[in-house]
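Standup notes, structure subgroup. Blocker cleared on the iron/sulfur cluster input:
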Amino acid sequence: MKLTYPMQTAPIAADVPRSHRVYFEVFGCQMNKLDAELMLEGLKRKGYFLVHDPDDAGVILYNTCSVREHAEERAVMRMTSFKKRKQQEPELIIGLTGCVAQHKQEQLSQRVPWIDLIVGTREFDRLPELIEEARGESSTLLATDMDSPLEFVRQRNLGPNRWHAFVSVMRGCDMVCTYCIVPTTRGKEVSRPPDEILDEVRRLADTGVKEITFLGQTVNSYGKRLGQGVGLDTLLRGVEEIDGIERCHFITSHPRFLRPKLIQAMAECTKVMDYLHLPVQSGSDSMLARMKRTYDRSFYLHVIDRLREKIPDITLATDFIVGFPGETQEEFDRSLSLVSEVGFDHSYVFQYSPRPGTVSDARMSDDIPLDVKKQRNHQLLAAVSAEAESRNQRFIGRRVEVLAEGPSRLDESRWAGRAGDHRIVIWPVQDDEEAGSFVVIEVDRTSSATLYGQRVTGPTQRPTLQISK
Ligand code: SAH
Ligand code: SF4
Ligand code: F3S
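Run returned:
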């Protein structure tokens, strides 16, 4: 059994009791993955170990996502599959954490009453004590208080790569996008103090982390309510001073908050990667208004212009939703035409999924047939892929600095890593490859998502992000 999110594990001594063996499955966004890492860190401090097979575990945890319907149903199905085992093994602890737990707390305790724990998005720091409490209970224990101050001092990185770590800078979201469940599952926006964040980054750097990804639902509105001009730029400039950290970037930004001060910091800080994920959702003004995204197409284009004035070669990724209620062919065409007008390098495309509890679900009917949603999804992805393929040509002949990750999944005779703009780079393996080190690759071929090339000798450290010939 392979864990869906491969957190770092240590070998387990044979005498670790079953009650302290945890199986953890993780769904959802990076934020949910980081929360799972933090939960595991808390559990490890109390003597728990991660196992890869649920049959070996005395504690089974699911960190869940609500953003689309199938993700939520999958969590319930998994819980259902454990009903029999729980009957045979009453001491087994089954816990549901994350966004579904927060959102569907009451219904869940009725739909899957054999589960022991439902832990929301702001109480997971109490997980070890909640598990102990649940051991003595016959009914489901609920811990879903939204006002609870999440108190967790992180010491280590349990993410899949020891040289990369996610760092949460804020929780929640104050926006009201009509399709989105996240503000309900994650609550109001709360920014962590900058000193606390930068201390965490320093500790991570001491353990060998070289690359940081700051996380927030609208990460570029970071600092709201902290006062004194604190913003995401404060954090980027802070990271610049931390020895050991070579690269940083941040997800996910909202077009409304991409302010000049932030763009300036992105351009000036050598460690900030040349990459921005800026979800647009639609290219049509009427759709953007129905989605309550708080900007229109021309505002988005204006923001991109301002960004490219300072960082001309920046790699741009986005998200689109297709099949939002009432989406006409003309409205969809506006999304299609935006792809080339902006020149996106990558995009996720999601088919609209009505979420109970959202405004679009309550007030609009999900009237775009599934086959139309699918067709628009394909069409938009094809447009993005064609655009990305032609944009990637600009890399041919360039030398790019790459953080090596390991053998390519498709072909062991090649290695893969990430360029300074987060793009995947592939090259023929050499004897001295080392995961987590920097190499220089001269690009000789590109596809829509990947750069291919040869390793060349040259500086293996920063400061140069892309070394032109
Ligand atoms: N906070 C981020 C992303 C939140 S969810 C942001 O605002 O950009 C990630 C993506 O899921 C969104 O960008 C959106 O494209 C998609 N999404 C959110 N709700 C959805 C829904 N109900 N149906 C389909 N896609 C959805
Ligand atoms: Fe959802 Fe909008 Fe907030 Fe993103 S900004 S999490 S899409 S409500
Ligand atoms: Fe899903 Fe929650 Fe993230 S709903 S996308 S796991 S914030």
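Discussed briefly. Residues 460-469 have pLDDT under 50 and may be disordered.
Next: hand off to the docking folks.
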